[in-house]
């Protein structure tokens, strides 16, 4: 039996429906992944937006291997270890100034789930019961029940909808709708029943890299402060320079109380979630009363190998070369988007930092369930490029080690695709 035949016999893949083609990958290096047949692909989507400095980066790989021989894992309830302490200290120093405590979990969904539970218990510990959450229309926060509840309703969570708690959805702000959005938002905050406002800051990934105004988002956070509502920035996608700065929150004048990280935190090597909080949040739990304890934890919380990978990832961000690469990618992406923006076969083209997206002008609405992207996916795979589309939106989020010529190759193939196929 071939690898793919055995795979089909034994494995249930995420997000794959019947008939979805599975490509066996056996090796990777830098921005490339290699198929079983030897075919080389440029990883233009950083393997679901997780990879930062390239695949199998020898520095990160060695740090994980060294750690595995020293201390592979220890329970994080009642114990600690040097890699976790080092990582937490570094993250606190890198994140906005108000952030001063790090809570570890396993992935992006759990980072948000933890934030949501913290926000609820923050009020509970103070003898208040607040029942409402606010999020943006089209936001995506993950696949666990809490994070699904905070996610836009629709195809992703339709079968579960009756089990999800109610959330108020507010449109993302731009210069045209600014007044209406702020008025509706303030109206909701005035109810005194809002526990928290959770948002994907500036870029809404799963919705197709939709982008909104950092200035107006800052005003919304300021309003939350005025009405004493907890603010949570879901930076699972946007963290680690995806938007050109270390964190998307660095573009905001007013900083959130809680910042959730995952994906890029380990450079794309290991799974880890981070929920980073300010003093106000932590203080509400720092109590002699056992009932005020945050009773949430996973077996692999604070895993040493994940922490070692994350520390090595941060080391690589300190290199001048990494910073230059990020700035070069920002420039390349904005140059290409400016060039292609008014192409007749596109509904839109947009970029922010290292993220770029083009929206094919296909039949039907732009959404994950728009099937036009399927043909594009196959076409680009054939050309040795992985840009896994979200519906009819083609997305480029490359690892920072991608060579200038490889990114230009992706652009040239997009132009060819638009000319010949779309
Ligand atoms: C903004 C955002 N939040 C949360 C998640 C969920 O992360 P995970 O897939 O690690 O559970 C994602 C995943 O794409 C995301 O983009």
Set down the secondary structure blueprint.
Blueprint: H1 3-10, E1 25-29, E2 32-35, E3 40-43, H2 46-49, H3 58-70, H4 82-94, E4 99-105, H5 108-124, E5 132-136, H6 145-149, E6 168-170, H7 178-189, E7 194-199, E8 203-204, E9 210-211, H8 214-226, E10 230-234, E11 258-261, E12 273-278, H9 279-283, H10 304-317, H11 320-340, E13 346-352, E14 355-360, H12 372-382, E15 385-386, E16 393-396, H13 404-420
Parallel strand pairs: 3-15, 5-6, 5-7, 7-10, 10-11
Antiparallel strand pairs: 1-2, 2-3, 4-12, 8-9, 11-12, 13-14, 14-16
Bound molecules: pyridoxal-5'-phosphate (PLP).
Pyridoxal-5'-phosphate is lined by residues 107-109, 112, 140-142, 200, 205-206, 234, 236-237, 262.
Number of domains: 2
The ligands found in this model are:
pyridoxal-5'-phosphate
Name the structural class: alpha/beta
Percent in strands: 15-25%
Q: Please identify which CATH superfamily of the largest domain we are dealing with.
A: Type I PLP-dependent aspartate aminotransferase-like (Major domain)
DSSP summary: helix tally: 13
Order of helices and strands: HEEEHHHEHEHEHEEEHEEEHHHEEHEEH
Amount of helix: 25-40%
Summed over residues and divided by their number, the pLDDT gives a mean of 95
Uncertain runs are: none
Give the oligomeric state. Answer: single chain
CATH hierarchy class name of the largest domain: Alpha Beta
* Topology-level CATH name of the largest domain: Aspartate Aminotransferase, domain 2
């Amino acid at each position: 039996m071939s690898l793919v035949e055995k795979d089909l016999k034994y494995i249930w893949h995420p997000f794959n429906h019947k008939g979805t083609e599975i490509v066996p990958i056996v090796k990777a290096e830098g921005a490339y992944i290699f198929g079983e047949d030897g075919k080389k692909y440029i990883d233009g989507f950083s393997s679901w937006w997780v990879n930062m400095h390239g695949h199998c980066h020898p520095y990160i790989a060695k740090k994980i291997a060294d750690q595995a021989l020293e201390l592979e894992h220890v329970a994080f309830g009642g114990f600690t270890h040097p890699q976790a302490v080092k990582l937490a200290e570094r993250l606190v120093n890198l994140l906005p100034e108000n952030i001063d405590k790090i809570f570890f979990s396993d992935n992006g969904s759990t980072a948000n789930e933890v934030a949501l539970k913290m926000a609820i218990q923050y009020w509970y510990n103070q003898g208040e019961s607040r029942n409402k959450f606010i999020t943006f229309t089209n936001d995506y926060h993950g696949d666990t029940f809490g994070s699904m509840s905070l996610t836009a309703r629709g195809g992703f969570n339709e079968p579960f909808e009756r089990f999800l708690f109610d959330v108020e959805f507010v449109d993302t702000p731009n210069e045209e709708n600014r007044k209406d959005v702020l008025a509706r938002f303030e109206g909701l905050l005035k109810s005194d029943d809002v526990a928290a406002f959770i948002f994907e800051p500036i870029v809404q990934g799963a919705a197709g890299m939709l982008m909104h105004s950092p200035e107006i988002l800052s005003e919304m956070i300021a309003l939350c402060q005025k009405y004493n509502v907890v603010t949570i920035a879901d930076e699972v996608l946007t963290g680690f320079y995806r938007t050109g700065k270390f964190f998307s929150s660095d573009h905001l004048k007013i900083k959130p109380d809680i910042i959730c990280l995952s994906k890029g935190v380990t450079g794309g090597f290991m799974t880890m979630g981070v929920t980073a909080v300010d003093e106000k949040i932590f203080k509400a739990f720092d109590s002699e009363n056992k009932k005020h304890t945050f009773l949430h934890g996973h077996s692999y919380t604070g895993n040493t190998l994940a922490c070692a990978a994350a520390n090595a990832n941060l080391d690589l961000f300190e290199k001048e070369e990494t910073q230059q690469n990020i700035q070069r990618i920002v420039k390349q992406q904005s140059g290409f988007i400016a060039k292609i923006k008014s192409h007749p076969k596109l509904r839109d083209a947009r970029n922010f930092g290292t993220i770029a997206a083009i929206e094919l002008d296909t039949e039907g609405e732009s959404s994950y369930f728009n099937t036009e992207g399927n043909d594009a996916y196959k076409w680009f795979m054939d050309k040795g490029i992985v840009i896994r589309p979200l519906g009819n939106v083609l997305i480029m989020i490359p690892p920072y080690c991608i060579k200038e010529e490889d990114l230009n190759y992706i652009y040239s193939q997009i132009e060819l695709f638009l000319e010949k196929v779309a």
